[in-house]
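User: Fold this; tokens only.

Assistant: Input:
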Amino acid sequence: MFYELIRHKRDQWYDSPACTVKDFIDYIVSKGEMRDAQICFLHFPVET
């Protein structure tokens, strides 16, 4: 249940205009240079 909540919020953020790394992630994924651990890290926003 907790995982589903986090995943839902991550997806909302990634699809929103507030996501500043979407183009960067898409580029790296398209080049085949993104590892699974990097994808997970970059998909979760960090608030300070």
